[in-house]
Structure formats: structure tokens, C-alpha cells
Amino acid sequence: MSGKLYLVATPIGNLDDITIRALNVLKEVDLIAAEDTRHTLGLLNHFEISKPLISYYKQTEKARSEILIEKLKEGKNIAIVSDAGTPGISDPGEEIVKVAIENSIEIIPIPGACAAINALIASGLSTKEFSFIGFLSAVKKEKKEKLEEIKYETRTLILYEAPHKLKGTLEMILEVLGDRKIVLARELTKIHEEFIRDKVSSILDKIETIKGEFVILIEGSSVSKKDIEEENINSLSLDEHYDLYKNEGLSKKEIIKKIAKDRNVNKNEIYQYFINKE
Ligand code: SAM
């Protein structure tokens, strides 16, 4: 019988944040696959757990997944851990889960710390709906394109960022998304935990003095993509509006129906307009 694959969340700072279940799983599995074995060894030593470790990081994820799957098929139970927080969230994990599913291996998530979720719940921004972006690309052009893409996202946005890139990223957020309300969740669960809640420009004024690990949360856009499209449609003349749909290959009947819906008017009014023009 195949072994089980456990995805074990570990602390993001405060070691007390490991769960009893996580500790039990780490004690009971046959092997722990860790992003950085030395880092995980520190955690295991702290909890007096001794287990064989295998490294499993982004660059080796594909090849190592195959090896781990073989071991799982042999009946070994394996835990995946990352350096901090929840595996698979801007950390290795996604790849092995896919291969494990293909091989009908049971996957068991062991809940625990996740910087994004803890930053969100204390941010004061809307928690009803949110969009997790993770790390933006290190390539400036791609980073800007991503921000353009999410400009009209109305959900709270959650980003991870390396400390030395924080200033540059905030400058680009200001340029592309405007002077929105943002929250920097700094050093979560650690001694210097702090929430900085302000407009991007005000935070940039203070930024030189800020150090540590951060989650960036951005208030969702007050204007949605749909609003923009509707605003644009409302500024069109009826003839321009007609041409818009004609170019999409719609029939006259369909076009009139769509225009009436877009403008929230009776379709006979629109029909009348085009009849009178003929
Ligand atoms: N898998 C992790 C999780 O569940 O949150 C995230 C790992 S990702 C490689 C590391 C990023 O998470 C950091 O650059 C930072 O943006 C965020 N992060 C991790 N620990 C944090 C902490 N204690 N306080 C604030 N942000 C943290």
C-alpha cells in the first residue's frame, strides 16, 4: 500500500506556532522533504525530533518529486515542509501534489502558519474576498505588466516581497495603482511584529528605516474593469455602440438587444432609432 504525503505548515517566526498535529506527523513519517535541510534541522532539533531529511527546493522540485513518489509507492510516509509557513504558498509543494494525484497517493494538509492569511486578518482591509498574488516578477517589465493586470481588481490584494525590493515595489505600486491604502505586515509572529497602515506615498516617505520580512496588502480598486467598460460604452454614440458589436459579427437583432441591455433601456427605443435612420 502506498504511503501518505503530508504537507506540513511550520512557523513563520515564533516557534510556538507549530501545531501538536504537525509535531506528531513530523515524528511519525519516514522521511521529511525540506526546502532547506539545514534550516529544518534547526526546527527538528528544537522539538527533539530526529528524522531523515531530503532536500526539496524549487530548482529540484520536478526531479525530486519523481524520487519521492517512488518512495511513497514503496509505502513510505513523507512530510513536505518549507523554510517557513505553508508549503505550496510561494514555496515548493505544488509540483509534488500534482504528481501524487496522478499516482493516486493520499495527500494530507496539516494546517498552520501562513504569512498571507495572518497579514490579511489583521490588516483592517476587506477579508471577504481577496486575491493572492505572491511574489511579483524580478523583471521590471513583467512586474509592471502584472500590476497593470490587477489594477482594477476590487478584492484585497496580497503580495509577498523580499525586504531589499520593498521600496522599488512600492514605487511601482504608486505609479500603476495610484496612492491606495496599503498595509505592510512586518515581522509577523516575531518580537518586532508591526502593522503599518497608510497610503503608499506616506509609507514611501518613511521607508528608509523599515527592515524585516513583509507582506504587502493593497486595498482593492474602487472601480472595477466592468465599471470602466460600462463608462466607455456610455460615452459611445449609438452608432459607435452599434459598430462595436457589428465588428464582433453579431446580427442586427442581437446588437439591438445587447445595446439595450448595456444602456439599461427598452430595446424598442434602440430599434426605433435604427429604423428611423434607415
Ligand atoms: N509559504 C510561506 C507562507 O505560508 O507564508 C511564504 C514563503 S515566501 C518564500 C516568503 C515571504 O513570505 C517573505 O518574503 C514575506 O513576504 C512573507 N513572510 C514570511 N514570513 C513572514 C513574516 N514572519 N512576516 C511577514 N512576512 C513574512
Q: What does this entry look like structurally?
A:
With 278 residues, the chain is of the alpha/beta class. The protein has twelve helices and ten strands. Strands 3-2-4-1-5 form a five-stranded parallel sheet, with helices on both faces. Strands 6-7-10-8-9 form a five-stranded mixed sheet. Strand 2, helix 2 and strand 3 form a beta-alpha-beta unit. The longest helix has 13 residues.
Helices and strands in order:
Elements: E1 5-8, H1 20-28, E2 31-34, H2 37-46, E3 53-55, H3 61-73, E4 78-81, H4 94-102, E5 107-110, H5 115-123, E6 130-135, H6 140-149, E7 156-161, H7 166-177, E8 181-186, E9 194-199, H8 200-206, E10 214-218, H9 225-234, H10 238-246, H11 252-263, H12 267-277
Parallel strand pairs: 1-4, 1-5, 2-3, 2-4, 6-7
Antiparallel strand pairs: 7-10, 8-9, 8-10
Helix pairs in contact: 3-4, 10-11, 11-12
The structure holds S-adenosylmethionine.
The site of S-adenosylmethionine has 23 residues, from helix 5, strand 7 and strand 10.
Keywords summarizing the entry:
278 residues, alpha/beta, five-stranded parallel β-sheet, five-stranded mixed β-sheet, 12 helices, 10 strands, 17% strand, elongated, binds S-adenosylmethionine
Number of strands: 10
Q: Order of strands side by side in the largest beta sheet? A: 3-2-4-1-5
What's the gyration radius in Å? 26 Å
Major sheet description:
5 strands, parallel
- H and E order: EHEHEHEHEHEHEHEEHEHHHH
Could you tell me the mean pLDDT?
93
Q: Runs with pLDDT <50, length 5+?
A: none
Instruction: Label the overall shape.
Output: elongated
Number of helical elements: 12
Bound molecules: S-adenosylmethionine
**Fraction in helix:** 40-55%
Structural class: alpha/beta
